[in-house]
Amino acid sequence: MTTLTVLATGPLATFQDLGRHGYAHLGVPASGGADRGSLTLANRLVGNDESAATIETTLGGLRIRVEGDVLAVVTGADTSVRHNGVPVGLAATVVLREGDELAVDPPVWGLRNYLAVRGGFDVEPVLGSRSTDTLSGLGPPVLTANVRVRVGRAAGEWPSVQSAPANTEHPRVVVLEVDEGPRADLLHAAADLGSGTWVVGADSNRVGVRIDRAAGSSYPLLTHRENAGELRSEGVAHGSVQVPPSGRPVLFLPDHPVTGGYPVVAVLTDTAADLAAQLVPGSEIRFRRR
User: Keyword Hydrolase on this protein (predicted)?
Assistant: First the structure.
């Protein structure tokens, strides 16, 4: 049986797959990987089903040692991946032998990385998912140093490719594409999400990305219409852009609550939701209507 030992986790490391869907009526968030494109790419590169459990890291710092042999890959934020101290490339598979170590450095751009191993991680599923939900506490516990993890045996055919082009574009302003939300009409006529740029706040997490105008910006915050009234709580989706009374929008990520009482004025596209998951505090963003 192949296992790995977590030597260091960085700021946050959790198990993530594609989430636990179908339980919103019970108040259970879907959770799952924040950057689903990077998660599924990692699984494809090692020959797993796209929904296999991976380790999601935040701001790097993950370091593991293997007991046995395994095929591994790291995708996501632009970072250096080191095999026994030697850089091996991002989104490039590497064979780890008995006693080998793999390390994920802090990214030079982006926030989250995904470590996949051939066969997936064999952790106990909760409601059909191996995802750690930081809001409800469901799923495996947050990873800590010295934890041993078993590698599963649920791999498919051997992957036809061993690497994928890494994203080396680091735009100063990240453009997020959105569709109009169901409550866009509740904003004041002069309020425009797409005007000017926004800045990501330090209080962002897997629940949501909180944004504000930059200091000294000439663009206003968003305001609700005077006759909007009080909105009843209603279901909200992954990628929803919700505007509380403060006028500072929140972009919902996978661990978001299943209901909300503030207007959802836009919804991120799937690609934009993955990009939002890579935004670090201080990032500048702009919204563009699809």
Answer: yes
